[in-house]
Write a structure and sequence with these properties.
Elements: H1 3-13, H2 19-31, H3 34-50, H4 59-77, E1 87-91, E2 94-101, H5 102-115, E3 120-124, H6 130-134, E4 144-146, H7 154-161, E5 171-173, H8 181-189, E6 198-200, H9 209-217, E7 226-228, H10 236-243, E8 253-255, E9 284-286, H11 292-295, H12 298-302, E10 310-312, H13 324-327, E11 337-339, H14 346-354, E12 364-366, H15 373-382, E13 391-393, H16 401-408, E14 418-420, H17 427-435, E15 445-447, H18 455-462, E16 472-474, H19 481-489, E17 499-501, H20 509-516, E18 525-527, H21 535-545, E19 549-550
Parallel strand pairs: 2-3, 3-4, 4-5, 5-6, 6-7, 7-8, 8-9, 9-10, 10-11, 11-12, 12-13, 13-14, 14-15, 15-16, 16-17, 17-18, 18-19
Antiparallel strand pairs: 1-2
Helix pairs in contact: 1-2, 2-3, 3-4, 7-8, 8-9, 9-10, 14-15, 15-16, 16-17, 17-18, 18-19, 19-20, 20-21
Length: 551
Amino acid sequence: MNHEQAFLQAIRETPDEDAPRLIYADWLEEQGGAARAARAAFIRLQCRLVDLPDEDPVRDRLEDEAADLLAEYQAEWTQPLSGIAEDWRFSRGFVEHIRIRGDNLLSHAEHLFDIAPLRSLHVQIHRSDVPHLAACPQLHWVSTLDFSRCQLNDRALQYLLTSPHLERLSALNLDGNDINTPGIQTLIRSPLFARLQRLDLSRNHALGDTAVRLLADHTTQNNLEALSLNESNLTLNGLYVLFRSTRLPHLCRLCVSGVRSHWTVEAFPPRDVDQFKLLAQLRDLDLSDIRLEAVMPRSLLASLPSNLRSLYLRNIGIQSEDVEWIAHSLSLSKLTCLNLGQNELGAVGVRMLADSPYLASLRILDVSHNNIRDTGVKAIAASPHLRHLRVLNLSGNGIGGPGLKALAGSSNLDHLRTLNLSSNFIGADSVRALAESEHLRNLTYLDLSDAFLEEDSARALAASPNLARLTTLLLKKNLLGDGGAKVLAQSPHLMRLTTLDLNDNRIGKTGAEALAATSWRWIRNLDLRSNVFTDTQEALLRKYFGNAVQL
């Protein structure tokens, strides 16, 4: 074992500690050379950023420095993963998460864990290969396993749970599989269940009240902190049992959006609100896509606990007159995330939110598809309380030029990282106002899909130094044409893009050639579907972008 391997082994064995990483950074710098010095600086920057508050004035500068280093050296640092992993993510200076096909993992597990202190695997695996994965000794180092949308059944889960190598596993994602009650019974009885902190069982459509009752009433000691049951076959009765459970003492995040909801309010009696022990301990609650009037009384929502940090109430039938209990609720004053998308707030409801001093801690606000129009977005722009937003979703609200120009001039966007303005009446003048806004200099994600944009709009975006931090730009269902594709491809500012969506933009030969000649280095997802290319142009794009391009 050489020095570098020894350092990586120390990092693997103490993954939550910064000291071994920083010692390794010092060693790299001592070896000399620009590339090693850059890697050392990147490790130190990411370690420092982990504990730095969002509002710290130096955070933006440090994030810029880390992004610049990653843009320049990522190909070199991740070269051993090329052709094996589908995607990867750095954490505290090292690749700790990868997305990978099951056959590649089984073939290259020893190599992968030798070159990186991997802790999180998103594995795309066939159920027949799960017994082989369970025998993989490298699972010993893994704390998170993600099998979302793999069509795993109860037998596959039971095979996985026989693995002797899951000592460190604390998070299991089984979203979108075929798990049923027998699989949950096996899970609860396994030694793993006592160690799990996060469990996602969403979109296992056969899971219903019986399985949920096992989770709610089991006697096994557990440390479960987050449980997701979105779009399962859970009914109101099962939800009732879950809310009354005292067997999940550490649970602080519960997601039950999209569960069956055709029961009457009488089945969920208001007098039992005080018996919902679980609600009192939750920090994050997702009740989206459950019709409020059909499922639970407003007295339940009005009794939400004061320690809530995230509240998701998307598509539950809230109207402007119902917003008052949120806007005037002192118990919600610690909220940092509020999702009210796809309701009927209108401009009046959004103005109530914008005027509320109790929502001053919000970092994430989603009021998409609420018909708030220009009046509503002007209220957000002028609010004295919404000054710390990091994510703002205004999609599908009938917003036009006046509202967008007010938004572009608002200092409430100074800290914004994500802005979704898709499906609004934007056009070139509004895009120009956004592109020229210095309040958007921290933006990394911008969605302007389906927004009546033409070549002039693309030109404004491409010419803006204020958008130089963008990593994701979504422009599908517009009219950018070849000219729009060309100016984007030649932009001197959009050099950090990893995702660009130009789906359905009337791009043809000239646009394809311009994109294939771009100097973008980090595009991982370029969506060019629903455009008109010949076989020759498609071959050119595939040659340049490889698997990153969708045609």
